[in-house]
Amino acid sequence: MIKHKITIVDDERLFKAGIKLLLEQEDDIQVTHEASNGQELLDLLETPNFETDLILLDLSMPVLDGIDTLTELNKNEHDLKIIVLSSHYNDSLILKLLDEGVSGFLAKNENPEVVIHTIRKVAENGFYINDDILKLIRNRRLIAKTKESNETLTSREAEVITLMCNELTTKEIAQQLYISPRTVEGHRNRILEKTGCKNIAGVVIYAIEHNMYEVNITKFR
Amino acid sequence: MIKHKITIVDDERLFKAGIKLLLEQEDDIQVTHEASNGQELLDLLETPNFETDLILLDLSMPVLDGIDTLTELNKNEHDLKIIVLSSHYNDSLILKLLDEGVSGFLAKNENPEVVIHTIRKVAENGFYINDDILKLIRNRRLIAKTKESNETLTSREAEVITLMCNELTTKEIAQQLYISPRTVEGHRNRILEKTGCKNIAGVVIYAIEHNMYEVNITKFR
DNA sequence: AATGCTATAGGTATTAATACCTGTTTTCAT
DNA sequence: ATGAAAACAGGTATTAATACCTATAGCATT
């Protein structure tokens, strides 16, 4: 019996834990590694003797999201089979992902059986796409690559940003992380530098736009 | 052994299936019913002999989302224990949910153990809030906000907020509006007071959540 | 061994933001 | 026309944020 070794990359712990259980009910599937964001995946790939047959990659993550992770991966040769996870697809996103060489797509709102099926198909044939998504590709258009390369934030910096978004002051962040306020200032300065923002207001917007901090657009005011 | 009978309401099948497996690893928890949206839950409740101890309710769903479902439920008397699932909470959302009488909150990015723990606590005590969310409430000055949550912002204040979101300092805003920096400060103080925010970071998030400032979250469209 | 990156943290300044006052003028609805 | 908001603006503080420095320890890579 060949076991497919799967690596899950998703920031939602609950989702990750759930899908892991789901997959491991199958005899031929084994979740061997997990990562919470793209950076962790890249680190994983660097570890010696790392081996995986297939990567389930979530698109929306802090630190290094799915798209950026793919771009990063494709800077070097690799033969990874990657199935992308997203809660919503549209045509240009699909095209972009195809362009980045992914092997399959899965909607987060999908039957467990379809997930299993997609994994097996990708493992066997190297590529699998279901009918709904195929339909999207039929009317294919070319898209221009307009990806600006911005400096990636470290996970510590991402942590500080999240706390900044929660209205914590430098001092409060320092207490929360058990480090000196000066260190937090250092992180904040690097954050402003990397993101090109002028002040905290800009950082908050940056965080929201890069899925590091989620907001609910409320219908009640 | 008392089994807690759980009903899961979530549109993401994968998530639902995952969390079901997770919960059923516990001896005292049993997932007896599932629904994909609020309407399905309402239908379930209408079926004779329907019985559930606790409902896990996702907020973002098609057809009838979590908030609307709660509103609908509260039109009639009921003694349901409801734990809300969301990927992100903010102050006004928490307020709204408390108002709708929910018994607990869970972040989707949460450890499985916390989920189990919350379910048990709610089942035992009827209500449970974990420390992270408590902290959020403290940070956002929920109590202060309760008193004056119906205070509306003036158009001048809204104007200042927009400029704050554009990373302008008080001085720059003053120049832009041809008024004194002191006046801008006055506006800003009223804004913090009315919105119950601690600082600019909070105001930016408030602005985005209240559709006063648009952000571009998706990288591709 | 040398390099570079990250996280750590202190020094010294300046500028901005926040808090709590005071007051006048303008605007607008009753 | 009168009273209540709203917009305006100054006084005086304190605290926080930002802008430059420097520096060291840990760690991985070359």
Written description of the protein model:
- Two copies of one chain form a homodimer.
- By secondary structure, chain A is an alpha/beta fold.
- Chain A has two domains: 4-138, Response regulator (Rossmann fold); 155-209, Arc Repressor Mutant, subunit A (Orthogonal Bundle).
- The first copy, chain A, has helices spanning 13-24, 38-46, 66-73, 91-99, 112-125, 131-138, 155-165, 170-177, 181-195, 200-209, and strands at 4-9, 29-35, 54-58, 82-86, 104-107.
- In chain A, helix 7 packs across helix 10 (200-209) and helix 8 (170-177) packs across helix 9 (181-195).
- Chain A is elongated.
- The model of chain A is unreliable at 138-150 (pLDDT under 50).
- Chains A and B meet through helix 1, helix 4 and helix 10 of A and helix 1, helix 4 and helix 11 of B.
- Chain A binds a DNA duplex (30 and 30 nucleotides) through helix 9.
Task: Bin the helical content of chain A.
Answer: 40-55%
Spatial strand order of the main sheet of chain A:
2-1-3-4-5
Show the largest interface: A-B, 53 and 56 residues
Order of helices and strands of chain A: EHEHEHEHEHHHHHH
Q: Return the average pLDDT of chain A rounded to an integer.
A: 79
Oligomeric state of the chains in view: homodimer
Helix/strand/pairing category of chain A: alpha/beta
CATH class of the largest domain in chain A: Alpha Beta
| Number of DSSP strand runs of chain A | 5
Give the overall shape of chain A, derived from the CA principal axes. elongated
* Proper CATH architecture of the largest domain in chain A: 3-Layer(aba) Sandwich
Unreliable spans of chain A are: 138-150
Determine the N-to-C terminus distance of chain A.
57 Å
In terms of DSSP E residues, the strand content of chain A is 5-15%
Count of individual domains of chain A: 2
Number of helices of chain A: 10
The biggest sheet of chain A amounts to: 5 strands, parallel
Radius of gyration of chain A: 19 Å
Fill in the CATH topology of the largest domain in chain A.
Answer: Rossmann fold
- The CATH homologous superfamily of the largest domain in chain A is named Response regulator
